[in-house]
Amino acid sequence: LTCAAEHLFNLKFAAKELNRNSKKCDKEEKAEKAKIKKAIQKSNMEVARIHAENAIRQKNQAINFLRMSARVDAVAARVQTAVTMGKVTKSMAGVVKSMDATLKSMNLEKISALMDKFEHQFETLDVQTQQMEDTMSNTTTLTTPQNQVDMLLQEMADEAGLDLNMELPQGQTGSVGTSVASAEQ
């Protein structure tokens, strides 16, 4: 059980590390978005597109870190259940030995007390198992849209108060207009 408890600690530490990495990626995504606005204001669409791609990559990386963190948390919950089950099994073995001794003496009060203790331990196990299942079912994953770069460029242009369609080269206006129309729908 001590080895499992040590692994449990390491899993929880890894999950926190993954969460920290996700937050770091979120910060870097925000910094890239600020760079997009500056590039759009300077009418430098090539640089704005590069920063948009970087922002999307950081966003996807943050999501991946969160996804991995959720998976590690799920494993940690399973290890926690195993540790708890080990403790309950050990307690049950003690209860069974006590029940054997009590049955030999046929003291009904002791039998009743032991059965109550046994039921209490099973109720505790049920609560812990339910908590683990709830944690597992609350784990969700996120998806991102196809035209992320164009939509992010339009969003940053809107926030900067600029008309992106007029500043894009001729070949790109259709895709941005389409993605904005689908985003509005």
Automatic annotation (TrEMBL):
InterPro entries: Snf7_fam. GO terms for biological process: vacuolar transport. Belongs to the SNF7 family. This is CHM1B protein.
